[in-house]
Design brief:
The protein is 19% helix and 24% strand. The chain is of the alpha+beta class and 545 residues long. Helix 3 runs parallel beside helix 5 and helix 7 (330-342) packs parallel to helix 8 (390-403).
């Protein structure tokens, strides 16, 4: 019976549990129904997300003292004092949707800030600020993006620093918004994961979302900026793919299809995200158009179409280069190709999870005596990222070239470190050219770059071993010269500053994740000029925040 009720609940992924209005707008009988509205609390803050030109998702959660439906009023205004109220309406939430509230008010003006709050009985939520997408000609945009926020790993000061930037048009979260482990966390910080167990059931996933949403730094960030998010693996479990996961034992930890569906259901309940396709509740890939300046395409490289990962490093070259191997899946690939072909914005941004640029090592031992023949001089060292799916990456390059796409910028999370890369079909050609010519291969027209990539550091998740950054920077300069910047230890985010002339990425780092309210420092800035697809050094900001 529990399994049957759960499956019935999953059917709601394309129903009222996720669609605008969050259920009936008619209040139940009595004040607040079975949940006494006078005793409701807003423990989890507010959030907005998936902005469009005329609407934006608004989110909160109520915590009633007694079970039963709760009436919640939401108010949208033009000013933070709510003197100019535009929308005031009531919706109902209950235990079916874990008392989350998600509404999608329409009729808003493009490129405009709004303020919102929620009320239930005598309780009033925090005030949130959001912004709709602009239309027409847009001169300038600023975004921040990050990923990999492990509550048990330290304080979320990165979110606090992002919240303080009042001029952001939106924040992107590129996955691993939470972690599924039962970690007890860093000693002395009192940030162990709730219940001390791994998330497996729907109740587990809801509980983990609830714990993360109590963090004051996370609440500050989502109250200040609209959020555009995608999941990676840890929102379900480590190294997940379409039909399984490294950290899932079938039978012992239930049925993967149900565990995956539970994680998706909780994600859509607890995140300010709009359903992309009511007929396909597992789809998260979607598009956001910021006038004529930016077309943001958010991808799912994790749960929708990914084939199982190969071993790392992948020594079976035949399997690695299988032309049918999928990372996005055919429907998403076709969608991406269509959007790249039809987009008219100056810059095309791909927001996604795993590193797109090649990360390879040279000077491999001769393995022929073991019956292993390597097809390339360089060997991919992480099969979980696009290096493990080279045919899928080549199909994206094919789409870029067929459509004549220029000014492509890939935004990435996942790897708990900072990278700035130029994108080539085969960066090995760049190595050869640098070894044999005088001058810059790009300036000489001997090789074509197809885009650039900015990879964000983590909020708290651990990166490369301490002290390895200088050594790896030197190594990449020789083996992977398309990698223009690397930092393996520090935690932070990337600030994007975009005009029609150039896109600049700045890496900002907090001084510590073991101390609350740690200050941040500027790390590095690289920019690409329109039409160049290469990264150049940018000057440091004149002041540090």
């Amino acid at each position: 019976m529990q399994r049957r009720r759960f499956l019935q609940g999953l059917g709601g992924l394309s129903g009222s549990v996720l669609l605008p209005g969050c259920g009936s707008s008619d209040a139940p009988a009595g004040e607040g129904g079975g949940g006494d509205a006078a005793k409701v609390r807003f423990d989890h803050g507010v959030a907005s997300g998936d902005p469009l030109a005329d609407r934006v998702i608004l989110w909160t959660r109520v915590t009633p003292e007694t079970d039963g439906p709760v009436s919640v009023r939401y108010v949208v205004a033009r000013d933070p004092d709510f003197d100019q109220v535009l929308i005031s309406d009531t919706v109902v939430t209950d235990a079916v949707r874990d008392y989350t509230v998600k509404v999608d008010p329409t009729g808003l003006e493009a490129g405009t800030h709004y303020w919102y709050r929620f009320e239930a009985g005598d309780a009033v939520s925090l005030v949130g600020r959001t912004k709709t997408l602009p239309v027409g000609h847009v001169e300038h945009l600023r975004f921040a993006f990050t990923s990999c926020s492990n509550y048990s790993g330290g304080y979320f000061g990165v979110y606090r620093r992002m919240a303080e930037r009042s001029d952001l048009d939106a924040v992107f979260h590129l996955g691993d918004y939470f972690y599924e482990s039962g970690s007890s966390g860093v000693e002395g910080l009192n940030r162990g994961h709730s219940n001390g167990r791994e998330t497996v059931t729907l109740e587990d996933y809801r509980d983990r979302h609830a714990q993360y949403r109590t963090d004051p730094d996370l609440q500050a960030m989502t109250a200040q900026h609209p959020l555009i998010a995608v999941w990676d693996d840890h929102e379900s479990t480590n190294d997940s793919w379409r039909d399984g996961a490294q950290n899932h034992t079938e039978g012992e930890e239930g049925v993967w299809a149900l565990r995956k569906a539970a994680s998706i259901m909780a994600y859509f309940e607890w995140m300010p995200i709009r359903v992309a396709d009511a007929s396909d509740p597992q789809r998260i890939w979607r598009q956001f158009v910021f006038g004529d300046l930016v077309d943001l395409l958010m991808l799912d490289t994790r749960l929708y179409g990914r084939d199982e990962q190969l071993a790392t490093p992948p020594l079976d070259q035949a399997a690695l280069n299988d032309p049918t191997r999928q990372l996005l899946g055919v429907p998403q690939e076709n969608w991406l190709t269509d959007r790249l072909t039809t987009s008219t914005a100056r810059w095309k941004l791909l927001g996604q999870q795993v590193m797109f640029a090649q990360l390879r090592l040279a000077s491999l031992p001769d393995l022929s005596l073991l019956g292993i023949t390597l097809a390339e001089e360089l060997l991919a060292i992480n099969a979980d990222q696009w290096d493990g799916y080279p045919a899928a990456r080549d199909r994206v390059f094919d789409a870029i070239e067929r459509a004549g796409v220029d000014n492509l910028v890939v935004l990435t999370g996942d790897i708990h470190s900072s990278w700035g890369c130029e994108l080539y079909r085969d960066p090995g050609e760049l190595v050869t050219l640098l070894d044999n010519i005088v001058g810059d291969p790009l300036d000489l027209g001997l090789i074509k770059a197809l885009g650039v990539e900015f990879v964000s550091p983590s909020v708290t998740s651990g990166g490369f071993p301490d002290g390895t950054t200088p050594l790896l920077q030197t190594l990449f300069g020789v083996v992977d010269p398309h990698i223009k910047y690397f930092d393996g230890q520090r935690h932070g985010y990337v600030l994007l500053d975009i005009t029609h002339e150039r896109t600049q990425g700045e890496w900002w780092y907090v001084d510590s994740i073991l101390e609350p309210d740690a200050p941040e420092q500027f790390g590095r800035a690289l920019y690409t000029n329109a039409g160049e697809n290469r990264l150049r050094e940018a000057a440091a900001p004149t002041t540090s925040r």
